[in-house]
Amino acid sequence: MSIRVTITKNTIIAHNIHKIEATVDSSTPLQFEAGQFTMVNIPTQLGSRTSKSDFQVETVPRAFSFGNSNNDPHNIIWYVKILEDKATGPHYASPYFKNCKAGDELAFDVPNGRMTLPDELPKKIVYIATTTGIAPFLSHLHKIADTSPQQNVEVIFGCRNKEDIFAQEELINLSSQLPNLTHTTSLSKPPDDWDGAKGRTTEHLSNIDNNALIYLCGNKHMIIDARKKLLKQNHNPQKIKFEIFY
Questions:
Q1: From residue 86, how far is each of 44, 94, 95, 150, 164 by CA, in Å?
Q2: What is the Cα–Cα distance from 137 to 66, expressed in whole angstroms?
Q3: Cα–Cα distance between 220 and 109 in angstroms, integer?
């Protein structure tokens, strides 16, 4: 079953990150679990846009995680990294989302994915993400804020450059709802005036509690390296959850 949405806003929130906001067709209210993704059907012709009268254009599926609370069945948020060097050929999502505007319509498949929260939360949860890999964790945090606001949570967010950073205001707002939330943003190529954490995400794993439930999302090399390092630190592999998209 396909679900139709209408884009309401396309906002550039970092130098190559777009925040896509959309409303769901009222005839098919959305149901998804925090942390899930969906396969979005992207038009294959650059610059083409679907409309209410034409959902027959050729499309290709691309995976995007929901970055918003799952309590709202009518609105969604996707975070899209625009790959300028791959804007042609089979990489249709970048040019489409770079140019889409309010009123454009898309269809996507039923939400899927296993990177959801357990019914009973552990004492501590740690999220490790690079760039748009933070999207499903923002969805998690909104759910935790609604259901378990005293939960102990840590977010380790890695970016390459200062210009890549986003979601900081949202993390600060979530901190006001989650008093036991801590978050670190680390740059692998920081400018001279950067006074925050430095280094790759995998350089900030040594102090993670061995009993924590750990989620990884983002660049596949980060996920592979982080998982190897965590296993060497005697973390339980059953408590390391991940999904690789790029």
A1: 14, 8, 9, 43, 18
A2: 9
A3: 23
pTM: 0.92
The letter for the amino acid at 138 is: L
DSSP assignment letter at 116: P
Six token digits for residue 161: 């450059």
- Among 80, 74, 46, smallest CA distance to 60 is for 46
CB atoms within 10 A of CB 81: 16
Query: What tens-digit pLDDT sequence spans the chain (246 residues)?
Result: 789 999 999 999 999 999 999 999 877 779 999 999 999 999 886 544 445 444 456 889 999 999 999 999 899 999 999 987 654 445 689 999 999 999 999 999 999 999 999 999 999 999 999 999 999 999 999 999 999 999 999 999 999 999 999 999 999 999 999 999 999 999 999 999 999 999 999 999 999 999 999 999 999 999 999 999 999 999 999 999 998 876
Contacts of 209 (CB under 8 A, 6+ apart): 123, 124, 126
Mind listing the domains of the chain with CATH numbers? 2-112 (2.40.30.10), 124-244 (3.40.50.80)
Q: Which two tokens stand for residue 58?
A: 């050729």
